[in-house]
Amino acid sequence: MYGNDFSAPGGGSDEAPGGLLGEVEAAEAELRAAAARGRRGGPAPDEDLAAYFAEVVDAEQKIEPRDWMPDAYRRTLIRQIAQHAHSEIIGMQPEGNWISRAPSLKRKAILLAKVQDEAGHGLYLYAAAETLGISRDELVQLLLDGRQKYSSIFNYPTLSWADVGAIGWLVDGAAIVNQVPLCRCSYGPYARAMIRVCKEESFHQRQGYEILHTLAHGTPAQQAMAQDAVDRWWYPSLAMFGPPDGNSTHSAQSMAWKIKRFSNDDLRQRFVDMCVQQAEVLGLRIPDDDLRWNDERQAHDYTQPDYDELLRVISGDGPCNRERIAHRRAAHSDGAWVREAAAAYAAKRAGQKETVAA
Amino acid sequence: MNGPFDFALALADDALIAAQRLAEWTTRAPEMEEDIALANIALDQLGAARLLLSYAGEVEGAGRDEDALAYLRDDREFRNALLVELPNGDFAVTMAKLFFLAAYQLPLYTALAGCADQRLAAIGAKARKESAYHLDHGALWVKRLGDGTEESHRRMQAAVDQVWPYTHELFAADPAAPVDPATLRPAFDEVVGPVLAEATLTRPDSGWAPGGGRAGVHTEHLAYLLAEMQVLHRAHPGAQW
C-alpha cells in the first residue's frame, strides 16, 4: 500500500477519466461470463481447425494457449505483447530519472512504487507472451538487438519534475485508452494481463494528474514548469496511437481477430476529448490553437501530431533512442555475472539434494 | 548522541540514505525480479525514514516536518552511519551493505518494539518485519554470490572486505539511548557468522573501524548524494509539491 496518502485533486472523482475503469470492470465481468458459459468441448477429430478457431473468436470466447491458432495470429500476438512488455521495461527509465530528485519524500515513495509497478507489468506481459511458445530471454534479446520495438514515447527526455506529472497524465492516459479495449482481446492470457495492468495504470494516471494539479496551482515557476511539460508531451502522446488509419499496416487483420477493437484514429479522438475537460480543471493549456468542439461530429477538432517525426523516432532517431537501449544493454551485461552466479549456486544446491537423496 | 531526537534522527538518516542508494538501482538491476525486490526494500526504508523523521520533528518541537529534515539539512547535520552512504559499487558491494545493515536493523527494531517510548515502539514493530525480509534477501544473495562462480566469489569477498570495517560504527555504545546499539552486537554476529561461512567467505580481521557519521562527520560521498536528492526542493523555497 504505497502512495495512497494523497487526496484526489479538484474534479475529485475516484473514477478513471472517461469511465474507463468501468470498462475494465465490464471486460472482467465479460471474461468471467465467457468462462462460465464454457466453450464447446474443442474441435471434433475431423473438424477444420481454422473454422473452429473462427467460431470461438466470433462467439467472444477466449483462445487459450493449448488451442490451435493461425501462425499469423500467434506471430502478431507475440510481437504485440512483447512490444508492450518492452515498453514497460524501457518506460521505467524516463520516470526513474527523477526518483533521486523527487521534491518531497511522499512524491519519492509514490514515484518509486510506480516505476516498480512498471517492472511488474513487464514481467507479467513477458509471461503472457511465453504462453505463445517463446521465452522471455529470447524476447529480451530481440529488444537488445533492436529487432523488436517499444513505444516511441519513451524516447523523449524527462527534463523537469513536471514531466513526471505529464507522463502520468498524458502518456499513461493514452496508454489506458489504448489498453482498455485490449482487456477484451480474443487471446485469454493477454486479456487477463491487461485487466490487471489497466487497473494499476489508472492509479498511475491519477497520480500524474495530481502532480500537475499541484504544480499548476503552485508558484509561478511551478506553473511554468507544468505548462512547459504539457507543451512538450502533448503531440508525442497523440502519436502513441500510431499512424492514421489509412497508413496502419496491422490494423484490419487485428480487428478481424478481435485483438484490436477500435481504430487508431478512434482511440486518438477519444483521448483528445477526454483531455480537454481535464486540462481545464488543471488550468493548463493544450498547445493546439485549432482545438475546438465540433458540434456536428460531437467531438473536438484537433491538430494531428507530426507523423514524420513519429516515423523518425520509430526508426531510431528520437532524442533518446540510443541512450535507452544502451542503458538496458549495460544493465543486462553488467548483471551477467550475477545471473551466472545464481545459476551456479542453484545447480550446486540441486546436486547436494540429489546426493542426500541417493 | 543524546535524547530521543538524536536517536530518532540517526535511525531515520540510516533508513533515508539507504533508500536513496537502493533506489539508484532502479532500471539497473541484474534481473527484472531484482529490480522489483530492490525497489521494495528501498520503499520499506523510505517508509521507516518518513515515520522516524516525522517523529523526530515532533520531538524537536521546532516545526520541522519530514521534508524540512530530509531536504534542508546539510551533510554535517546528517546522523547516518557511514555504511549506508558508501556508493553502491557492483551488485556484491550493494548486497554486502544490505546484508550487514539488515543484520543490524533487525535486532535494533526488535528491541525498539519493546522500548518505553510508544511511538518508537510502534515504528520498531512495523519495521522489524520488513527488516526480516531484507535480511533474508541479503543473506541469500551473499550465499549465492559467495558460493556461485569463481568470479562472483572473488567479487563477494572483495565486497565483504570493503564494507566490513564500516559495520563497527553501527554498534558504538550509547547507554542513554532508548536502545543501546552496543547491546545489538551479539545478535548481529550470530546472524552474520554462519551466513559468511556458508557462503565460503571469510570475515576480515582488520582493526580499521571508520566512524564519525553519528556526529555528522561523513565520507566525501554524502554531500554528492544530498546535492542530488535536495536540488529540486531547494530550488523552490517554500513551494508545495
Automatic annotation (TrEMBL), chain A:
PANTHER family: 1,2-PHENYLACETYL-COA EPOXIDASE, SUBUNIT A, PHENYLACETIC ACID DEGRADATION PROTEIN PAA
Any Pfam family matching the protein: PaaA_PaaC
Signal peptide (from-to): none
Originating organism: Micromonospora tarensis
UniProt cross-references to Gene3D superfamilies, sorted A to Z: 1.20.1260.10
Keywords: Oxidoreductase
E.C. designation(s): 1.14.13.149
Name of this protein: 1,2-phenylacetyl-CoA epoxidase subunit A
Gene Ontology MF annotations: phenylacetyl-CoA 1,2-epoxidase activity
Automatic annotation (TrEMBL), chain B:
Pfam families referenced in this protein's UniProt entry, alphabetically: PaaA_PaaC
Domain of life, source organism: Bacteria
NCBIfam families associated with the record: PA_CoA_Oxy3
PANTHER family, sorted: 1,2-PHENYLACETYL-COA EPOXIDASE, SUBUNIT C, PHENYLACETIC ACID DEGRADATION PROTEIN PAA
UniProt name for this protein: Phenylacetate-CoA oxygenase subunit PaaC
Organism: Micromonospora tarensis
Gene: paaC
